[in-house]
Write a structure and sequence with these properties.
about 280 residues, alpha/beta, Rossmann fold, 7 strands, about 45% helix, about 15% strand
Length: about 280
């Protein structure tokens, strides 16, 4: 007889859960027996996703850039099922292109969602977890937390910031029973990455990231790269002299300026980055 997953019965809150990686994380966790709350800025989509996914899934409106919205999301989940055992910070956006062509509105949105949204979630969820002596915060960062592809400079800055922030928070929470994990995937086949290149690594599916999240919950680790070999490879390359390091990373890391030049695949998505109400 197989043992139930350690995820079974846990109360999990997933931000940005209406589509893409967040939706897949919710689906896999619910299939493993977790009670999953998905929050998203797109109310119709989060309601539809919650209805479509099997298992115990409930959808809530959530704006990770608004403290009261985030606080209300966590409170609503607690009112429904009880305190959140696992918070998955998944919400994120990405504008791609030359650094000097990036609209200020895109810069602001990436900083506010990708970085401050994570800080906000940790600040709201971790103190209660510490009081209870247990809890887990899993954040979907990116391989860009260790690398900086051309064309993704601000996006990479937000992911570097997430890793730096959580490194410090993890030390503050040492011995408290609260676990911190950072998932760092390569390029994933989602709307966020449409039209970009994956470099030397294979293009990932959202399910690859979702499985990494489940593994991190079952057997907590701080840094998780997807694929796994990326972490050791980057650390090894960082030991090289600068000239060799540069040439190595140029072979491995995609040039997203070149990959997206002249393309139109990202136009609709990036209008939505700048103006969340514009998904045309």
């Amino acid at each position: 007889m197989s043992m139930p997953s350690p995820v079974a019965g846990r109360i999990v809150a997933v931000t940005g859960g209406a589509r893409g990686i967040g939706r897949e994380i919710a689906a896999v966790l619910a299939a493993a027996g977790a009670r999953v709350a998905i929050g998203d800025l797109d109310r119709p989509a989060v309601t539809a996703t919650a209805a479509e996914l099997p298992g115990t899934v409930h959808g809530f409106p959530l704006d990770v850039t608004d403290t009261e919205s985030f606080r209300g999301f966590l409170a609503a989940v607690e009112s429904l099922w009880g305190p959140v055992d696992v918070l998955v910070n998944n919400a994120g956006v990405m504008w791609v292109g030359p650094f000097d062509a990036e609209p200020e509105a895109a810069t602001a949105r990436m900083l506010e969602i990708n970085l401050h949204g994570v800080i906000r979630g940790v600040r709201l969820a971790a103190p209660g977890m510490r009081e209870r002596g247990r809890g887990h915060i899993v954040t979907i960062a990116s391989a860009a937390a260790r690398l900086s592809p051309p064309g993704e400079s601000t996006y990479a800055a937000t992911k570097h910031g997430v890793l730096g922030y959580l490194t410090g928070v993890r030390e503050e929470l040492r011995g408290s029973g609260v676990r911190i994990s950072v998932i760092m995937p390569g390029v994933v086949a989602t709307e966020l990455a449409a039209g970009t290149a994956s470099g030397a690594a294979s293009l990932l599916a959202p399910a690859d990231v979702a499985r990494a999240v489940v593994r991190a919950i079952e057997r907590p680790r701080f840094e998780v790269t997807v694929p796994r070999y990326v972490g050791p490879l980057v650390r090894l390359a960082e030991l090289l002299p600068q000239r060799l390091r540069d040439s190595t990373f140029r072979r491995l890391v995609p040039d997203q300026v070149a990959a997206t030049r002249g393309g139109t695949e990202r136009a609709g998505y990036e209008r939505g980055v700048i103006d969340p109400g514009d998904r045309s």
